[in-house]
Design a protein that fits this description.
This protein is mainly α. It has 3 domains: 32-99 and 215-234 and 261-373, no CATH class; 117-183; 390-431, no CATH class. It is 56% helix and 9% strand. Helix 7 packs across helix 8. The N and C termini lie far apart (94 Å).
Length: 434
């Protein structure tokens, strides 16, 4: 199809903006992230991320333009969806996705053999040549005894070389582990983790419901989802408790608004240095959430500036992206002796979004500083407090028990055992006689 006249300048951009605005309002925000499985990336050149001035300026300009338009939860979701798409496009262009790579078992086995080298390959090729001659010795004029002798010698050389290489590789591993134990604890535990056998990351496709076994995939997945949902959902409240909770929340909000120090310390503006400290403390190599963003992508000045603007919008509007409250649950078995077909015999490890963890870490640091400066924490509380430890309580309890025993009195302690994610618990009282 031919055009009679060229389109006016800017027509394509105008048409794209119109269709984009229509599609963004017709489709629910963040729906694309929920429907698609997350993509895994291996970050290599983190310093080059968002170095393209066009993408970096696009992130900042997009946040600044939409800052005044955020009045509802959907507006916040659309802002984060567009920001996520810009970051994801940069990740796809710079990094290599790992989700689409499928290696054969042969390639994996070959990669695991760390002792293989050029000398082993040459000896192996020589062994194959002798093996071919040995198989065809009946049709050759040369005597079969000499060919068999050459094949046995080649096989002996190959076996001896492989044995020596394996022992050398094993000695090198031991030496690296010993050096890492004193020099680099992180590398030490990585070496130890590689020595463990590979664990299965899939759940058994069989469940027992009311004494009946089901092996259908949809039934199994729905049962696992319902079990974790029921265990993590709080029990329903009656209308009286709901009204009490609402009144308490409103009174606390009024008290917070009247408190100038609270508004300054907790609801203050995020600075670039504050967000930079949060990003610097974040550990690399961690799993991503639903949005596929990893910590390595935000460890640069451009991303820190964009996150600072996003966090300030969340504080000013009291809205956060709804996808920040969602996570990928990775079940890990509690014990090898329990039934693997029961979902509640697994720990539900939640993989949260990286940006949401940075935001909550910043809010948590502010609350801790506010509570510590105002001396609101009780002296008996040591857990989740900076410069305090639960070991202090253990030491205090141990000394109190020794004092009671020295006075020939029986000390008593109260132990609460929680089971099944705080659904039920048993209380036992033990007497400390020794």
């Amino acid at each position: 199809m031919f055009r009679t006249s060229p389109p006016p300048p800017g027509a394509a951009e105008a048409q794209y903006e119109t269709t984009h605005q229509q599609s963004s309002h017709t489709t629910p925000p963040m729906q694309g992230l929920r429907d698609k499985p997350p993509t895994r990336f291996k970050a290599q050149n983190t310093a080059d991320f968002l170095c393209n001035t066009v993408n970096a300026e696009k992130c900042l300009r997009w946040i600044e333009e939409r800052e005044a338009e955020i009045t509802t939860q959907q507006d916040m979701d659309r802002l984060y969806e567009e920001l996520h798409q810009i970051i994801l496009d940069e990740m796809i262009a710079l990094y290599k996705p790992l989700s689409g790579l499928k290696k054969s078992c042969k390639a994996v086995r070959y990669k695991l053999k760390e002792w293989r080298c050029e000398s082993v390959e040459e000896c192996w090729n020589e062994l194959k040549k002798c093996e071919r001659k040995h198989r065809k010795c009946a049709q050759m004029s040369q005597g079969p005894d000499q060919i068999r002798h050459e094949f046995n010698e080649a096989q002996g050389r190959f076996d001896k070389m492989v044995k020596n290489k394996k022992w050398k590789c094993l000695r090198d591993k031991i030496k690296n582990i010993e050096n890492a134990n004193t020099a680099d604890p992180v590398s030490f535990w990585r070496y130890i983790q590689k020595l463990n056998p590979c664990k299965s990351k899939t759940i058994p496709m069989e469940v027992t419901i009311d004494g009946v076994k089901y092996a259908d995939e949809n039934t199994v997945l729905s049962h696992w989802a319902s079990e974790f949902r029921n265990s993590l959902t709080p029990p329903p409240m009656d209308e009286t408790k709901k009204q009490q909770l609402k009144n308490t929340t409103e009174s606390n909000r009024r008290r917070e608004n009247d408190n100038d120090s609270y508004n300054k310390d907790i609801k203050g503006v995020f600075t670039i240095s504050e967000v930079g400290k949060l990003v610097t403390k974040a550990k690399s190599g961690k799993a991503s959430g639903l949005d596929s963003i990893i910590y390595e992508t935000v460890k640069n000045d451009e991303a820190i500036a964009a996150l600072t603007k996003l966090f300030n919008i969340c504080v000013d509007t009291n809205f956060v992206p709804s996808i920040w409250s969602e996570a990928i649950i990775s079940p890990i078995t509690k014990s090898s002796s329990t039934d693997p077909r029961v979902p509640l015999n697994y720990y539900g490890i939640s993989l949260l979004l990286v940006i949401s963890k940075l935001y909550t870490a910043g809010i948590s640091n502010r609350i801790s500083k506010y509570m510590e400066s105002g001396r609101i924490f009780a002296n008996e509380q040591n857990g989740l407090c900076p410069n305090r430890s639960c070991l202090d309580h253990i030491y205090t309890l141990h000394n109190a028990a020794k004092v009671r025993l020295n006075q020939k009195k029986k000390p008593f302690s109260h132990l609460s055992i929680f089971q099944k994610h705080l659904i039920t618990f048993k209380k036992n009282i033990y007497s400390m006689n020794s």
